[in-house]
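INTERNAL AUDIT FORM
Audit reference: QA-55
Scope: verify that the stored structure record matches its stored sequence.
Auditor: D.O.
Record contents follow.
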Amino acid sequence: MDFIKLADSIPFQSNLGPIYLSPSNTLYSSGAANGATSNTDSIFFGNLSGFQATGAYQSVFQGANSGNGATGAFQSSFIGVNAGQGSSSAFQSNFIGYNSGKLATSAYGSVFIGNDSGNGAINAAQSVFVGRDSGNGATSAADSFFLGYRAGYGASSASASAFLGTSAGDGATNATGGVFIGYQAGLSAVDSVGSVFVGQQAGSGATNTA
């Protein structure tokens, strides 16, 4: 027998459809894991979860479209609708929340927690974004730490930065190596490479602070 059907032995699974355990120890529901490669010891729950994900071993895909089309998706967790969908080099990462890590590039070794955290983040390797919309659309965002609602939202050249507080670094440009701490600290700051703003709205709208 190539596959073992577990549907009759797992309660509360009626919305998932039949549940299967493959010979490679991969647990998945119907409509999940279709086309995924190297998916040994992984879990796929949700319509199109892990669909055509590559290198998807020892990972968890939970939620519709979670990890759909993700590349290099081994030893990662994609939890939430669209979490990690289309992300690249997404190995050893954890994306938790609706759209978290969706279309994030070079997203290995990262942790994105919160709806739309890291959504569309570019070159987001080894970063931590916590809070709704944290790091959403941030560019060159590797090795950064964004904490708070909209922290680092749309920030450009935001690698090696730390933005802590609601909207800290929101829309900041050329923000590499910046440290912005406080409510709206560094909000829409321009040319803020290596700048330090501490306090409520510190550096908000500042220009040429590099």
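Auditor finding: record pair retrieved intact. Confidence is low (pLDDT under 50) at residues 1-14.
Action required: none
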